[in-house]
Design brief:
Distance between the termini: 56 Å
Order of helices and strands: EHEHEHEEHEEEHHEHHH
CATH architecture of the largest domain: Alpha-Beta Complex
Shape: globular
Radius of gyration: 18 Å
Strand content: 15-25%
CATH superfamily of the largest domain: Spore Coat Polysaccharide Biosynthesis Protein SpsA, Chain A
Number of strands: 9
Amino acid sequence: MKEIPLFSLLIATVRRRTELEKLLFTLRQQQYQHIQIIIADQNPPSSLEDLHAQFSDLPLQIIPVPDKGVSQARNAIIPLAEGSYIAFPDDDCWYAPDTLAQVAEAFQRHPQAGTVMGKSIDASPASPSCGQDAPVSQIGTFKHGETYLQFFRAEVVKDLRFDPRLGPGTGLPYGCGEDTDYLLEAHKRAPVWRCPSIRVFHPSPDTHVPSDAKIASYAAGRMFLLKKHAFPLWFRCANVLYPLCMLPLDALRKGRKAARYRWRMFVERLRHFSS
């Protein structure tokens, strides 16, 4: 009898109890139930101690991680992963009932793929997402390359770790980029495929505009990452100009807050372009 592959879901969390409960509830509802859930807990002691009782039906481990930063938290629990597939759900994302089943099917469709990526959705649709699977280029990793959309073959990334300089909570300026950095490293090892049938839900900036500090940290992380991986100058310039090009359209469609968000993004990316 063929063994059913195990999914290891590695979740770093801090200050998001309600959102984490929502994610765990959707893991309880998965059609595909051969899973391992490990939470890297960066909250004050005892903050999550009752989750075991609340979700006693789930194979849940909670590991306290005192080190700061999401990258450090994920790195601390990667060695505990036992699955054939590994994913890093954000603590504020949630899954459709068929998310993991669709991932397993995608890996079967693309046996050479080391990574498959889903589609980010900010509201629950009545019907599944549609679209064609497509390979992802190095440059393509910057289009919806967030960690919560990435699913990896463990054999491809078993010795790969997140860059501890990147991501929220490090105390460094680089408040993002750890997700794309990890994906870029995985891309060097095996092909990456985007599969729209894999649905992952996540709050959108359209409904929750980040603070100026967060916009600045994300810009710093993105520009640092582009230099780290030696992307061509034209692509770095395009990353700076993109929010400026989107500003008039967003102003018309979504209003002043969205326009201001795009402007701040442009200013901060420009500021970090040569730093």
